[in-house]
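LAB NOTEBOOK - FOLDING QUEUE
OPERATOR: T.R.
BATCH SIZE: 2
PURPOSE: Compare the predicted structure-token outputs for two unrelated chains run back to back under identical settings.
PRIORITY: normal
REVIEWER: second-year student, initials M.K.

ITEM 1
FIELD SEQUENCE / FIELD STRUCTURE:
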Amino acid sequence: MVTGTRFSARGFTLIEFMLVIVIIGLMLSVFIPQCQRSRYEAKIGLVRQNASEAGSYVVAWAQKQAMTMPKSTEISFEDFLTGSVNHRGSSFSQSALVNHYTGHTSFDGVEKFIRPDVPIRNPFCSDAPIRNPFNHISIFDRLNDDTEVPGKQPGLLFLISNPTGGEILEKDSINELYFIYTGMASQWYGSIDATSVPGIRRGIFVTKFFGQR
């Protein structure tokens, strides 16, 4: 007697097939937003890293510029950061860096300090420009500037000056510089706010100094 195993030739029914599709769709609806959020937060982390690096370049550049000025001018590195410097008898003229995105022309001197056009190795010179991870161009590129505040694209670095202690010191005040940055289009990242002291201090701290009110 010959015996054998019978296999059912019945496949998936339409209802079973649709149920599998629904389950897959539900899984994707959970995992895809999480992946997108993780990628976005990773890019924001790079923006914060860029701000810390750019902050050190900004301060070093301002200090170097102040050292090249005649002592009789009494122009300090703070002036290069927060005020317009236009020394008579000198070809140098530089607008304040604060209240601008890094793509503004005021940051041209900082960019040249990082990546000079001369074949001499600068200790602050990177092998590659600091890039905005959202558009993959240098943070000093004109595309990283915006006439609106906050800008309409993510990853923009904006330098803020926050004077404090003026009520106590009368003439002198302590200035704190921060880089704050845009998140998704048309808003600052998270609870950062260019118009409030707590919001500014959630940005990236750059430096602190005494300055005139």
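ITEM 2
FIELD SEQUENCE / FIELD STRUCTURE:
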Amino acid sequence: MNVNDVLHVPTVRFVPFRQDNILPVFDASFRVMDPGLRISVASAFYPTVAGICQNIFDQSAFTERASLDKTYNSKGISDLVEGKIDIFVTYSSKDDQEAMRKALGKFECVPLFQESLAVLVNKKNPVRDITYSQLKGIYEGKYVNWIDVGGFDKVIRTFQLGEGNVSRLGFLDGIKSGTPINLPQSEIETMPELVDTVADDECAIGNIFWPYYARMYANKQTRYLKIDGNAPSSSEYPIKFPICLHYDGTNPKRQLHEMVEYLRTDEGRRLTELAHQSERVVE
């Protein structure tokens, strides 16, 4: 891998209240003053949630990694169930929601924003746009060569993050296939590793949630595929998911519920949209 090809924005640039962060500024009318409120977020969505926290937390109430931390889905869910955190922000499957519903006093799942799952290929791949049906066909084994979808005469190699990763989970739900799909049991554990794997293999295809690729880690030897003519940033892009606030409605922390209600107001939605769209690295 050529390090000059990597477009990397370190996580610290998104940490609330750091002097060198690149988070947006918004004149919010609500403030979190409770230093005990604990939020965790799936890593791909950290920039957006950090942008929200920067503007609603009072600085005196915010402690890095205690007030807001990033993690992977299975740990975030277990931390919520065990009472280690108050809110987990992620995309969750029906099975995960059912597990939380059984474990929590009153499971709440409140949509915060919509997010796309980007499909990545190598820069040398001539395919730039495929249909949703063709994408399904690749993972159902119907198409095994790039020539089948308008590309070069080379075997398609699919790459995927490992079990329990939110991108893998989202892709399974996004394809919505009645046929068993070709998601290899991958040893790829991190999102940068997946991006770099696609960058090193001209026959590769992989998927990753768009905000991570667009805002935190990309590689010039990769690019995303348009699907049915739509880029991942388009409102018409077909593989989108609700990213939700997951919490226990019986949680006694007053400011937890006040924050959720604020984010559902018109002003809260404007703040969320600003945090969601700011500081793209890739378009």
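REVIEWER COMMENT (ITEM 2): The first helix runs from residue 46 to 56.
FOLLOW-UP: none requested
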